[in-house]
Each structure stands twice: as C-alpha cells, then as structure tokens.
Amino acid sequence: MKLQRMNRRALALGALAVSGALALTACGSDDTSDTGSGGSASAKASSSVDCGDASGQLQASGSSAQKNAIDAWVKEFAAACSGVQINYNPTGSGAGVTAFTQGQTAFAGSDSALKPEEITASKKICSNGQGIDLPMVGGPIAVGFNVPGVDSLTLDAATLAQIFDSKITKWNDEAIAKLNPDAKLPDLKIQAFHRSDESGTTDNFTKYLKAAAPGDWSYEPGKSWEAKGGQSAQGSSGLAQQVTQTSGAISYFELSYAEGIKTVDIKTEAAEPVKATVENATAAIGAAKVVGTGKDLALELDYTPSAAGAYPITLVTYEIVCDKGNKAETLPATKAFLNYIASEDGQGLLAEAGYAPMPDEIITKVRETISGLS
Question: Rounded mean pLDDT of 67-84?
C-alpha cells in the first residue's frame, strides 16, 4: 500500500502544471508534461529557494528517468522565482549529453556519468573548464510485468538476462517456475520490451545484467540496446505503456512509472528476494563510491549487493554542467535551480515522488561543488 501511494503521488506530481512564466517542454519525446499557470509561492519554496540574480530562460534536456522529479522541483522553484523560465526536455540521456556538448543547453540530465570522450567534447563549450557529473536523483529500476493470473514474481539476474536475450521465451519456462514454485505460470509467449532511444536506464540495467550474470549476458553495457530480438518503445513512459497494454509483457523503467504495474522481486545473494522500493534502492546507493576526479562526482554503483534489503538494479541521475566557463547569461539561473534541488527541501521531495534522495555524504559534496561553479 505504501508503494502504491508513492507511485500515485509520483504521477500526480508529474501531471502538475507549472506556475508563473516557467514551463516544461517535451518536444520530440513521448515523456511529455503539460504547461499552465498557477498561484503564489508556497511556504516551502519561499524558505528554500534563493533566486539570487536568476532571470531569463534556461534550456536543459536529457534523462526521462528524472522527469517526475523535475516536475516537482520546477513547481516549487517557479513559485519562488517567477522571473525565470526553465525548459527541460526529457529526450533521454544520450540526446541530453549531446545537446550539452554542442552548447545547446545550460545543463543536461543523464543516468550515466560522462565518458572520457564526452568530457573531451565538453571542453569546447566550457571555457577553461569541462563538464562534470553532479549526482542528484536516485532510485530503483523496476522490472514491470503483465502475466495474467500472476500477481507476484521473483526473478534473478541469470533468468532476466536470458529473457531479454530471447533465450527464455515462455512464461512457464523451467527456470522461471523454479524461482516461483507457487505461481500458476501460463504457457504464454514472453514479450520483452527495451528502450528504442539511447538511455541511461538501459545503461544501468545492462550493467546490472553484465555484473550479476556475466555468463548469460554477453553484451557490453551501454545506452543503446545491443541484444537481439525483443520489441522497443520510446522513453520510460513508452515502456510502461507497453507493459500495461500487452499480455505477457516485461520491461524495465524507473519506479515512478510503475503506477498500476506489478514489479518483479529480485533474487540476490541475500536470504530473501528484494522488492523495488525507494528504501531498498537507498540502501544500495548508500554503498556507492565517488570515482570522479577533481570536481566530478561520478559514482560507482554496486550491482551485486549481498546485504538484506539492498535492491540491485538502481540508477543515479546526474545533472551535467560546466565546472568553469558556463554562459554568463544562464549561470545565475543554473546555480539557483541546482542549489534548490540539492537542498534539504529539494531532496525531501524525492521520496514522495518515488525516488531516492542522495546520501548525506554525497549531497554535501554536490552542494559544495555547485557553490563554486563559474
């Protein structure tokens, strides 16, 4: 019941219209949000948002995984800083990083840390600086399924790898039945869906498969789907829609998109299978290590946790920005918005929306880094 309430809250937040002159746009993506106008600043926004010299328009794009979090943050920020217009386009992590390195946006959202070649590309638009990763949003990647007559399902990494590599094709396969002895599994074809666009969610999901089931997943992790077979859909919302409407479907997407969808419990080295919840994702993310250098705060996640209640398929969404050389006309708004979403109040909105806030030791470093952006 608690998870259902959080998921309902996530969708409600995602549907909220933004207020004042601030708008969210989603051209070119199926992860869209409505725009509108609203009332005055809330007490929370007034107390936690420092607008500073922020003004004008701020263009940003990228991760669709954080869309519902961005919606919630923007509502509060707009109430306090009516002179700023932010346009966040949830095009997917790959497109977002490309737009940033081409100088089209003030910052990008990505569910994967910058690669060396992307950092090199960023130096062309970050005068005397480079793009850096600021971990801001965490959460579980839920594996949603639609199998008639099956309300609870447990799978492990090896079985998931074989399902998404078209090696297991029926829901009553022996490997699935062994993990679910009490389930009445139908003789039904599995319809496995993956992202059609470049996605950090795909990157993290395939990193999990490669780390936890190397013998069953021969593909290198990445934002683009490499396995053969299966079907595809655009964006997290597209995958969730396919699972909802397709009998026999299974796919992966952020927990905030799992409204009304049954999700798989993941068998790990722990004694009991682990459910996809914010709390269980936080337990796993808390063990992450900062591996970025300098001001870069890229994290290394553990995809094979053995601790009880640590959900293994997690992601962290980074806001990517120049450490130095940000455009003078957008820097005040960029810092004001990033400062707010990294604040205690900004992070406090995440659990309600089905996301995991960053651990204290990590978000403290993020705040320090934002204050030094130039």
Answer: 91
Would the pLDDT of 369 be above 50?
yes
How far CA 104 is from CA of 143, 163, 242, 250, 341, in Å, comes to 33, 39, 32, 35, 22
Is residue 111 part of an annotated ligand binding site?
yes
Q: pLDDT grade, residue 45 (50/70/90)?
A: very low
Specify which of 80-84, 150-154, 358-362 reaches the highest per-range mean pLDDT.
150-154
62 Cβ contact partners less than 8 Å away, ≥ 6 residues apart: 89, 90, 91, 92, 93, 95, 96, 97, 99, 100, 108, 109, 110, 320
**Residue 232 vs residues 98, 219, 292, 365: alpha-carbon distances, Å:** 22, 17, 32, 38
CA atoms lying within 13 Å on the CB side of residue 29: 30
**200 annotated among ligand-binding-site residues:** yes
Between CA 351 and CA 285 the distance in angstroms is 14
| Burial label, 181 (beta-carbon count in 10 A; 0-12, 13-18, 19+) | exposed
Is 64 one of the annotated binding-site residues? Answer: yes
Q: What is the spatial distance between Cα 186 and Cα 188, in angstroms, rounded to a whole number? A: 5
Please check if 93 is assigned to a binding site.
yes
Give me the amino acid identity at 180: N
Mean pLDDT of the chain: 88
Cα–Cα distance measured from residue 96 to residue 73, given in angstroms and rounded to the nearest whole number: 19
Tens of pLDDT along 238-274? 999 999 999 999 999 999 899 999 999 999 999 999 9
CA angle 71, 73, 74 (to 5 degrees): 65
Q: 3-state class of 244 per DSSP?
A: helix
Output the six-digit token pair for 65: 């995984």
Tokens standing for residue 109: 């959202």
Q: Which domains does the chain have, with CATH numbers?
A: 2-137+319-371 (3.40.190.10), 141-283 (3.40.190.10)
**In the chain, which ranges are continuous DSSP H helix?**
2-15, 43-48, 67-80, 93-101, 116-122, 157-164, 174-179, 200-212, 235-245, 278-285, 331-342, 344-348, 360-371
Count of alpha carbons within 13 Å of 294, Cβ hemisphere only?
12
Residue 230 gets which letter from DSSP? Answer: -
